[in-house]
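Standup notes, protein team

Yesterday: finished cleaning the Steinernema carpocapsae set.
Today: C2H2-type domain-containing protein structure.
Blockers: none.

Input for C2H2-type domain-containing protein:
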Amino acid sequence: MKIQEDQLKPVEQALEEPKRELFGHQKFCQLKNLKTATDLALFSHFSYKNQDDVLEELFDEEERERYRSLDESINIPTIKRMLLFAKIEKLITQNRVYKPIWKCQLCKVSIKGTISQRFSHIGQHEDLPCSCFIEDCDKYLKTPTSLMNHLQKSHNLMESRKYLDRYFPPESFVELCDRKDKKTHLRHISAFFECAIAGCNFMASTYTFSRHLKGAHSKNIKNLTEEELFKYKTAREKCIKAVKEALPEYFPYKTKIEEEE
């Protein structure tokens, strides 16, 4: 299913409390404990609205003092901003065959692709020079891509190219990587499964689950409980089976092709 523009409200409409700082949420995003992050977001939300009665209902005095201290030291995004981010992440995860498109809020240029493309575009607006690190070169560029081009053209960092034929001539070719590439190519059959951790709705593949587990939950597979491990293995086997069943449809074996001819 292609991501439609009307599935995502414009950012301006989705954000509440526009006077709050919209940037610099790194400290909040780095909180490892999901409950702490959720409670802190709720505290910040109702504190900003001066709804002390709600805060007293949700948190005891000790918790209120602790979250008040954190609220003063950490820039916390709004509830609606977090919900919008979660919605975008879910849409991107479920539609990996499509590349997300973002519109720059300053120049309205559409940027397609991963976050690295957005980082590169930011260099067109912000004075974030990528200084050349070669001694006695005072050149600086606007984007990492421009810096790489400068290094290649001005400092001959592609010297190794002239040795390419010595070490990897055409005769050194072995074969095309077959098995894993085929399975990766079959992403459009939606062979994803929900994270085994209770309360987490991240849709993982057999290749991304371990990375997600470590990054989002500070765990690895051997740290999972019996229930979580069973859920993970069951979902993983189901995905592998789906890929194996779909493989001949997209990559028919040679004998099958000959039979059809």
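Follow-up from PR in the comments: Residues 24-80 form one domain.
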